[in-house]
Amino acid sequence: IDKAYQIARPKNIERIIFDPDFTKSDGYIKKRMCADFGEGDIKETMQNSRRDSGHNMEVIGILRYMGDGEKRPVFARKELFTSPNIMNIEDIASAIDHEDIHTREERYGLDFHTYRKNNEELAKLLNSGEVKINMILTIGEMGAFAYQLDKIQKGERKPSRQLKAHVNKWINYLKCIVEAERTQNKLHLFEQEFYEAKRKIYPDVFKKL
After folding, report:
1. To the nearest 10°, the Cα dihedral for 9, 12, 14, 18?
2. Which of 19, 64, 93, 208 is the 20 to 30 Å CA partner of 165?
3. Which pLDDT score, from 0 to 100, does residue 85 have?
4. What is the pLDDT of residues 136-184, one digit of tens each?
5. Which of 186, 192, 201, 146 has the alpha carbon at shortest distance from 170?
6. 190 and 130 in contact (C-beta within 8 Å)?
7. Interaxial angle between packed helices 23-33 and 39-51, expressed in degrees from 0 to 180 and rounded to the nearest 10
């Protein structure tokens, strides 16, 4: 992991912590949230982190702190070393690229290409029903895959055939979900803007999808 971190040189990841049993991420959540949240919210955040347990690595997203300017730790799960899509050090570096985009949005706010939305702005949109959390997460995930694929297409990362196929499969799957919502006029205004922002940030990637 340390060698892959040196290859990837992420700008927004504080460090990568191997955490196969969630004990370290649970400790991080408790320490991060104890001053501002009750026990129920802390337990819910821990449970949400386990719902993503099939992922190779994870950034703990806590809405209240989005846009605080701080780097984030990333927790590496056991799947990083058991996944059939991770074959070599370049694959791990590519996975770190993916997480660096998630940490950048946690650090600076959601990226709408020409501006960003921080925790308070996103909370207002969620509370007013102007955005759906699942759609924001879907588009954010698609953006992370787009950044990962952009570096691959430019030759900055040379992953295995298996990982490249995995990234292509997932970005196309997520794009289909968003396009289906858009076709049915179910995308809210800010969801549409968030989606279009990803297309503008990574135009070459989306031209080839």
Report:
1. -70
2. 19
3. 95
4. 999 999 999 999 999 999 999 999 999 999 999 999 999 999 999 999 9
5. 146
6. yes
7. 140
Q: What are the C-alpha distances in Å from 77 to residues 18, 42, 113?
A: 6, 20, 31
Q: Nearest CA to 16 among 96, 101, 87?
A: 96
Q: What is the pLDDT of residues 36-83, one digit of tens each?
A: 999 999 999 999 998 865 679 999 999 999 999 999 999 999 999 999
Average pLDDT for residues 6-28, to the nearest whole number? 97
**Contacts for 49-57 with beta carbons within 8 Å, 24 or more apart?**
49/22, 49/25, 50/22, 53/22, 53/77, 53/79, 54/79, 55/79, 56/80, 56/83, 56/86, 56/95, 57/16, 57/95, 57/96, 57/98, 57/99
Query: Is 73:10 a contact under the CB 8 Å cutoff?
Result: no
The pLDDT of residue 51: 82
DSSP string, the chain: -HHHHHHH--SSEEEEEE-TTSHHHHHHHHHHHTTTS-HHHHHHHHHHHHHTTTSSEE----GGGTTS---EEEEE-GGGGT-TT--SHHHHHHHHHHHHHHHHHHHH-EE-SS-EE-HHHHHHHHHHTSS-HHHHHHHHHHHHHHHHHHHHHTTS----HHHHHHHHHHHHHHHHHHHHHHHTT---HHHHHHHHHHHHHSHHHHHT-
